[in-house]
Amino acid sequence: MGTASSLVSPGEVIEDAYGGEGGEACEIPVEVKPKARLLRSSFRRGPRVIGASFKSTGSVDLEYTAEYERLRKEYEIFRVSKNNEITSMQKKEAKLDEENKRLRAELQALQKTYQKILREKESALEAKYQAMERAATFEHDRDKVKRQFKIFRETKEKEIQDLLRAKRDLEAKLLQLQAQGIMVYDPDDSDDDDNHTTVTAAGTPCDYWGGGVLGSEPSMGSMMQLQQTFRGPEFAHSLCDVEGPFANVSRDDWDAAVASLLQVSPHVSQALWSNTVRCYLISTQETQAELDIFTQRYSPRLQSLCEGLGHFYLNICFPEESAASYALERRQEMERSSVCVLLLKSSITSCVLEDAEEAFVKNPDGRPLVLYLRTVEAHPLSGPTRQLLERVNAADKAAKVKVVDHGGSPEEGASMIYTQLEKVIKQELLGLEGSDVDSKDSGIDEGREEDLGDVLWDLHDEQEQIEAYQQACSAAAQLGFQKYIDRLNDMVAAPPPTPPLLVSGGPGSGKSLLLSKWIELQQKHSPNTLFLYHFVGRPLSTSSEPVLIIKRLTVKLLQHFWSISGLSMDPSKILEEFPRWLERLSARHQGNIIIIIDSIDQIQHAERHMKWLIDPLPVNVRVVVSVNVETCPQAWRLWPTLHLDPLNPREVKSVVNTECLAADVKLTKDQDKKLERHCRSASTCNALYVTLIAKMITNCRSAWSLERTLEQCLLCQDTMSLYSLGLKVALDTLSTDRERHVMREMLCLVCASHNGVSESEVLAVFPDLGLPVLSSLLYTLQRLCIVGLGCGLIRFQHLQAGEAVRLEFMDGGTCSPAYRENLIHYFSQQLSQDRVTWRVADELPWLLQQQEDRAKLQLSLLNLFVSQNLYKRGHFSELLAYWQYVGKDKSSMATEYFDSLKHYEKSCESEDSMIRLANLYETLGRFLKDLGLLSQAVAPLQRSLEIRETALDPDHPSVALSLHQLAGVYVQWRKYGNAEQFYKQALEISENAFGSDHACVARELDSLAMLYQKQNKYEQAEKLRKRSVRIRQKTARQKGHMYGFTLLRRRAIQLEELTLGKDTADCAKTFNELGVLYYLQNNLEAAKVFLTRSLEMRQRVLGPDHPDCAQSLNNLAALHTERREYETAEDMYERALDIRKRALSPDHPSLAYTLKHLAMLYKRRGKLEKAVPLYELALDIREKSFGPKHPSVATALVNLAVLYCHLKKHSEALPLYEQALRVYEDSLGRSHPRVGETLKNLAVLR
Q1: What residue spans do the TPR repeats cover (predicted)?
Q2: At what angle do helices 1233-1245 and 57-180 cross, to 10 degrees?
Q3: How do 402-406 and 501-505 pair as beta strands?
């Protein structure tokens, strides 16, 4: 072996462990280390170890090289193998990626197939359910028809047996009479449509039969059950002949329609201007005492009466000494007044004479009039006063002026004026039929009947929309809208489906005006189109509340289908269910349904609450919305858009000229050029901007002020600066600093309020402000387009007007909290424990919420009358929002209300207070029921029932109301047995209290029918529903309920407005429609006026021989027939018949129509010989129109035979009866009642 020096590291010294001598190498055990260690060690540098033995360096290098080569080869082999593995893995990965893509594609295809199959499955299930429903309905209808047919067959068989027995009895009696030689004579001749016939003869076997036995022609209403006649049902069961939309309408149809509409449509009084009873008082110095007593003592009573019914009351009186300086204001207030009172004694002044002439002489039918005349022997009437009274008496042809002739003290006179005014307001203005609205015995509020359904209307919301639409339609300027109207018409005519159309433009570009004008034109030219519109006011106002908007549109949609069942009061459900109602009801409507929402971007959270706009609309539904360009939601910008461009120079000039012409102001050429040069930019060509300039120019009273105002206007480059100038101009028109202060304060209060402030509230806040000054101030502000009156409230006409007030008078809005505090103080004073007006309920909680005063807000809500007022007016969502703001959930809110009611109950001692308490408990129960808290709703309703039974009487009608509401809760709870018991008790009480034909009875019948329908008791439900319909038809016809026909009167007024142009055939047709509409309302005098005007106009325009003249003559003849003016009617029928014979073909239905009714009139007047040829001609026309075997021909044969019997021509009557019998048997069957009637006639005749 060699030495182990190669194993010794450099620098190490090896010592002899066995004590050997120095320099002698000893063999020792050595641990062999790894090669890698050896290699590293061999390259270390250091001092050599003395006495060590080293291998040569060359051998080490050779060993390293060999080892290195081996390792390198191994590495190369390893690297190649790994590269091969990587390549293989990459190939596998690529292959897996391709497989993954293929699988993903297959998965997507499978998902699509799955979705398609799922949709098909859902469709199939839906179709299955629909088919099952149809099958169930069909089976039910089939069973129903079987039962009805069985009953009908048994009834008719019994009738036939009775007829045969009657025939045998008559034959026996006839033989007895013949044997006795007694002659039978019945002189009665009915005025009905040939319903009875009598014949007189003696000595022959055919001479004797009783009157009324022979058959007769039925009314056309019943004829519709037999065949499709040539004219449809006779109009209104009379002889009126009409074309167009009323051609197939009967009075019963109208009654049913009106009765159904009255269930859901609020009655908006047309006698009030902007929801205010405006009493115009004209007085002299001699009657100033009566006026002062009336205004101080009795006006508050009338104000309380009107506010309790949701209206304002305002006395309009211009003092005699200053009346001359308010000429324009007096004329405007006279036009707006609801009732006018003239107080006279002996003398009269010029201003009083002017007002009296305007109200009592020139326009005596414009409003109710009251004339108070204080007669004193010591002061005889002066000449002018006597002449005025004579002119008033001559103008009062209809004797409508209420005269109060008094000779006592002023106190008694004021009391008599109050009594007469109270009667006028209740009966003529508010339609209360003279009943006492504060009746203690009723136990319910006036108009309670309209408050019994699930849908609670707010009269003010509806009137606000009506006034907004009417004000926009009445604007004089057209602003070149024709191109936009054509585009809107194209959108309506476009094939479905169509997304909503966006009408966009800057503020004041005329979007509201365009939509109003388009609606007005569409309603004239597309009568089958249903329009639902809503004009949104300023943000945070009631008109911008989304739930109220959708609820109003839903109910307006439902009322056209005469059904409101199933509509929820829950705010979230109202928003959710509106698209479903729209789709369901659009399928039942024959024409288009167009929904227009103006300024939709002003709605609170519009994009979230109007999500239904994004969904596909039904095929016959079109939606038009308007927005400002700056505030339009981004998602809506993809819709088809109609953008309103700025006005061009020609349109600018047209707007200015229109305003100047109306105000009788003329601009110079230089002024025209200045305006034209100025109105060229986008901001100065804005429609509102141009209108404001025109208004401010025409407001000037002199050429110098006009030039100065024009120069100031030309310095304003946008609408906001122009509004600021308008405010300064309005301030300059006022004469005192006090008046200027009042104007600023009033406008700031309007800006800080929820919906505006009323005139009476302004007068109450500023007691030293007189009405003449307020009227003048409002007149100026209205002319400058700053404020307007809507629903009796002073509001800004445009959002920019309010913003200008905020900037000019309120330091950019920093003063708003102070003005809101002023309003809170005022409305808190109006708040009482016994009575809360709708204004307090509208404003006070909202103001407290804006002030972030949660404690006071909760206290105001716990005033039960505030919450009751909000709920009963349908502000359900608003009430819930207040409670959510306070931080209360539904259950805790219910607990708070119940505790508050318990506390209030402790203070109730009188009968009146207990009745109010019962009403509060009932309102709370209904509120909780609408919230879905059924278990909590039972307790307050039960308590209301107990109080009413104790305080009033167990059989009082109010008890029926509590039972009705309790039953409604149990219906929702699906406890049908309890509900049925309560409904039956309510029905029994209502029948005992009101009789079997009262509307309250119909309500209970409807509820019971709905309950039976839910229990699948269809036969019982149908019976009750039919009875309810009959009751509603009857009550709608009663005069005491005739204000329900206001719906018809509105249509009559619209038609009347169309007739203000020159004489045309269309105007004459409109007059004819008006006459027919007034006939439907039983207003025969008005009907005669319009039908006569229609005839005269047609004779002038078309000529006296035109067929349309025959129609007017026919209608007038029918009118005279109903008034039993037979001679005049006969003349007109003959003239109509002569025209139609010459103008129409011999077999024309209109000719047969006139023939029939003229023959009936001849028979009624005993002119039987003249009636025969007409009946014969009518028979020929029917044979040519329907063929010889039609039942209508058989009826004509019977009527002609009856006439021959009247004339003793029995031999000629016999073959007619036999022919009629054959026709009836062939067409109607041998068991038909007509066959039996004809057999009876034949039996008597033979």
Answers
A1: 960-993, 1110-1143, 1152-1185, 1194-1227
A2: 10
A3: unpaired
Helix, strand, coil abundance in the chain, percent, nearest 5? 65, 5, 30
List the strands of the sheet with 530-535, edge to edge.
530-535, 593-598, 621-628, 501-505, 641-643
Q: Give the whole-angstrom CA distance, residue 677 versus residue 652.
A: 11
Q: What are the backbone dihedrals phi and psi of residue 273, each rounded to the nearest 5 degrees, phi first?
A: -90, 115
pLDDT surpassing 60 at residue 1059: no
Contact 17, 55 (CB under 8 A): no
For the CA atoms of 948, 954, 955, 959, what is the dihedral angle to 10 degrees?
30
Nearest to 774 by CA among 324, 316, 356: 316
Residue indicated by tokens 């009466």: 305
Sheet holding 276-283, edge to edge: 312-316, 276-283, 339-344, 369-374, 402-406
Looking up tokens 């005739």 gives 1042
263 pLDDT band, cuts 50/70/90, is very low
Per DSSP, the chain holds a count of helices (H) and strands (E) of 47, 13
H-helix or E-strand containing 873?
none
Please tell me whether residue 594 adopts helix, strand or coil conformation: strand
Contacts of 171 (CB under 8 A, 6+ apart): 1243
- β-bridge mates for residue 594, sequence order: 531, 622
For the chain, the C-alpha Rg in angstroms (whole number) is 46
Closest CA to 341 of 350, 349, 351, 352: 352
For 829, phi then psi, to 5°, come to -65, -35
Tell me the C-alpha distance between 382 and 578, whole Å: 67
pLDDT digits (tens, 9 = 90+) for 632-670: 888 888 888 888 888 888 888 888 888 888 888 888 888
Token pair in block for residue 280:
């115009």
The enclosing H or E element of 408 equals: none
* 1236 contacts 163 by C-beta, under 8 angstroms: yes
Q: Which long-range contacts (CB under 8 A, 24 or more apart) does 42-46 make?
A: 42/6, 44/9, 44/10, 45/10, 46/10, 46/11
How far, rounded to the nearest angstrom, does the alpha carbon of residue 889 sit from its chain's CA centroid? 32
Give the whole-angstrom CA distance, residue 50 versus residue 1218. Answer: 164
- 955 contact partners, CB below 8 Å, separation of at least 6: 989, 992, 993
Q: Is the dihedral of CA 1011, 457, 540, 470 positive or negative?
A: positive
Using DSSP bridges, classify how beta strands 793-796 and 757-758 pair: parallel, antiparallel or unpaired: antiparallel
8 A C-beta contact, residue 951 and residue 914 = yes
Burial label, 102 (beta-carbon count in 10 A; 0-12, 13-18, 19+): exposed
CA distance 964 to 1206: 58
DSSP string, 322-367: TGGGGHHHHHHHHHH-SEEEEEESS---HHHHHHHIIIIII-TTSS
Please state, as a whole number, how many other Cβ atoms lie within 10 Å of the Cβ of residue 977.
8
How far is C-alpha 1053 from the geometric centre of its chain's CA atoms? Answer: 19
CA 711 to chain centre: 47
Q: Could you tell me the two tokens for 922?
A: 């009932």
Mapped onto helix, strand or coil, the DSSP state of residue 423 is: helix
Tell me what the pLDDT averaged over the chain comes to: 77
Beta-bridge partners for 642: 503
φ/ψ bin of 632: left (φ > 0), alpha (ψ from -120 to 50), beta (otherwise): beta
> How far apart (Å, rounded) are the C-alpha atoms in residues 434 and 416?
16
Q: Give the model confidence (pLDDT) of 41-78 as tens digits.
A: 444 444 444 444 444 555 667 778 888 888 989 999 99
Q: Who contacts 578 (Cβ-Cβ below 8 Å, separation ≥6)?
A: 550, 553, 554, 612
pLDDT for residue 155: 64
